[in-house]
Structures are given as structure tokens and as C-alpha cells.
């Protein structure tokens, strides 16, 4: 092997190692942010939305109650703020995936409703283009 070939191989190896390390650092940074965020608040808010969806009577009463409407908007905005507090879109996506992973033991119908609620939250919070897979790994394997 020539010196230039060895040098090129070494540079490619160093570049790959550097980028792999940076990706690992970024994932760890996101996990750290997720632990500090109050994502349980978002999960509770979303579970309430799903529950209200089941009970049309409660939902219709809430729709006519300005206080409840304002409270729901406040809760949604707080949840948006928690997720928006993540440093970048990848971390925001991981935060939403973390909430979805909390649904692993739930019936399939509830998982699908949570996925829909998370997608609606993503749009309502104006997080940008949706490049976030919220399906659970076990669900992907079944499909």
C-alpha cells in the first residue's frame, strides 16, 4: 500500500469514528433532555384527550364551557412548550417517541389513538415537517 492510500483510509476511519461519536453524543444529549422534561404532563394531557374522545357527553359539555376550553388550550400549550424545549427536531421526535413507548402495554386501539393524538399535537404545536416515526417497534414488525 502506498502512503497516500494509507492516509486516505486513516482519514476515512477517523471521519467515520468522529461522526459516529457525534451521533451517540447527540442521542445521549436528547435522552438527558427527555429525562429533565415534564413529559408525563404531556402524556397525561394526551390520555385525557383520548378519554374525552371515548365519552362524547363529557366532550360536548366541555366544548360549551369556555373555562374548560381555555384550560385545555393552556394544557396543550404547556405540552408544546415542554417538547419545544428540546434542543433540536430530532430530540423533539425522540420525546414524542418516548411518550409513545409508554403505550406498549396498552390495547392496540389505545396505541393508535395515542399515535393520532401525538400527530395532532405535532401539527398543533407547529413543530415543522413531520419526519418522526411514532410507530412502536413491535407494531412495525407485525405489519
Automatic annotation (TrEMBL):
SMART domains: AAI (SM00499)
Protein's UniProt keywords contain Disulfide bond: yes
Lineage: Eukaryota, Viridiplantae, Streptophyta, Embryophyta, Tracheophyta
Keywords: Disulfide bond, Signal
Family: Belongs to the 2S seed storage albumins family.
Regions crossing the membrane: none
Protein species of origin: Vigna radiata var. radiata
Domain Bifunctional inhibitor/plant lipid transfer protein/seed storage helical: 42-132
Signal peptide: 1-19
GO molecular function: nutrient reservoir activity
The protein's name in its UniProt record: 2S albumin-like
InterPro entries documented for this protein: Bifun_inhib/LTP/seed_sf, Bifunc_inhib/LTP/seed_store, Napin/2SS/CON
